[in-house]
Predict the structure.
Amino acid sequence: VQLQASGGGLVQAGGSLRLSCAASERTLSSYFMGWFRQTPGKEREFVATIRWSGGNTYYADSVKGRFTISRDYANNAVHLQMNNLKPEDTAVYYCAAGRSIVSTSTTPRGYNHWGQGTEVTVSQ
């Protein structure tokens, strides 16, 4: 499956952005989807994941209550609504897909397919 991430940009602290990840696969029922982020010199960090079948979600503690991951059946996409953004949320955000109908993953190696990344910058 090919993934295309979009929606990044520059926003002030406290603002919101909505990232989207469009998948080429017609049926995502066998997949779970996730968002990760990365800053220079650091490892890729887990943000959120959702199972396409069932919709179970899981979030990193650092974004819980501020970010929401959701499925978009009509467009074969996954969205990440980011509210109350903080400067420490600044990073390149990557969407990813892994194949399983019963589980998800919070580690990069649990995912088989990656999008190209979209940059999010949160200013003071």
Remarks:
- The chain is about 0% helix and 50% strand.
- The chain has a mean pLDDT of 95.
